[in-house]
Amino acid sequence: MTRLLSGAALAAAALAAILFLPLFGLRLLACLVAALAAREYLAITHTGRPLPMAPVLLLVVLTCWGLSDPNLSVVLPLLLAGLAWLVVEVLFRGRTVDQAAARLVAPWYVGMPLGMLAAVQSLGGPRATLLLVATIVVSDSGQYYTGRAFGRQPLAPAISPKKTVEGAVGGLVLATSFMTLAGPWVFPSAGRLSLALLGAAIVVLGIGGDLFESRLKRTAGVKDSSALIPGHGGVLDRIDALLFAVPAYYLFLRA
């Protein structure tokens, strides 16, 4: 019951934000979510002595805010800032390359796609955002129920034992069909084939994002990225598929 109630509350809050928040407010919300998710990422990838999170979280928020501008004029400055920060961490603060590189990934793993998600809203309006989120929901639901009904062959047993090839195929078929049917509502000039390819890309990338986070958690020896959301784990657990899928969707929208 706790999982159901918190899930319903999250869905209602996300829908209200997409439909009613002005773009400035949505960009602020994206930055807040990015900071929470990045904090979880840093916690589960941390090894060795404690490292300050504040500089990384600041860079994550700046990346998210900058990339929420559809003009993307800040990409190069942010990349250069990240590389400069990597050099400082390794040469002057005594971090290993592994430690510094893992922290440097945070702005691009978390900040970039969440910023692009706000940019999607700016470019395509609430319909474009809802279509992406709905496609991922259909994919996740399709994978879950198809896997439960027909799953026999593990997809990635060393990373996520419950995922099956049959579940992945079910999610792929259902979400691709959904995008093909619902896509013209947002992209009236797009052909069915291009929408089908977009739907398939979202599913495949979403599965990749899910497995990527599962690998991070398995390496860290934790079940969830945090206990922030009752019954659902952390913020990163809820948006892992979205983080990998957003950039492809954004590029399609721009094209």
Rounded mean pLDDT is 88
Strand order of the largest sheet: 1-2
Low-confidence stretches: none
Q: Rg from C-alpha positions?
A: 18 Å
Quaternary structure type: single chain
Taking the alpha carbons of the first and last residues, their distance comes to 43 Å
Q: Beta-strand percentage?
A: under 5%
Helix coverage percent:
over 70%
The count of domains is 1
Instruction: Give the biggest beta sheet.
Output: 2 strands, antiparallel
Continuous helix count: 8
Shape: globular
Structural class call reads: mainly alpha
Number of strands: 2
Order of secondary-structure elements = HHHHHEEHHH
Summarize the structure.
By secondary structure, this protein is mainly alpha-helical.
Which key phrases capture this entry?
255 residues, mainly alpha, two-stranded antiparallel ribbon, 8 helices, globular
